[in-house]
Amino acid sequence: MGYEDGEKFVLEVNDEFEATIADLAKLRRQKGHDYGDDKDTFSNITQSEDFGVDGWLGAAIRLNDKVNRIKSFAKKGSLKNEPIEDAFKDIAVYAIIALVLYRRK
Predict the structure, then answer these.
(1) Does the pLDDT value for residue 75 go beyond 80?
(2) For residue 87, which of 27, 46, 26 has the smallest C-alpha distance?
(3) Considering the domain boundaries, does residue 90 fall inside one?
């Protein structure tokens, strides 16, 4: 976890990939504020543990829901309640949340 060499890493916002990562970090922070609590911004995800499901697996299940939305979009050509880009963003964020929670085990 963190940077093994101790160097600070700064995203290049002029790079399309890295700018997207920065946008995703901002999105996660905003949603964490809305859904999480003061102690843990992932608390809405880790509540799956109340049902015997590890938090990282709970995040992976939510990620799979978004994959299913993309499959639906691919078949139907449209979505009614969420732009396809939101599904891609959510998949990326859920994958990182799952990784963070897995590392906490």
Answers:
(1) yes
(2) 27
(3) yes
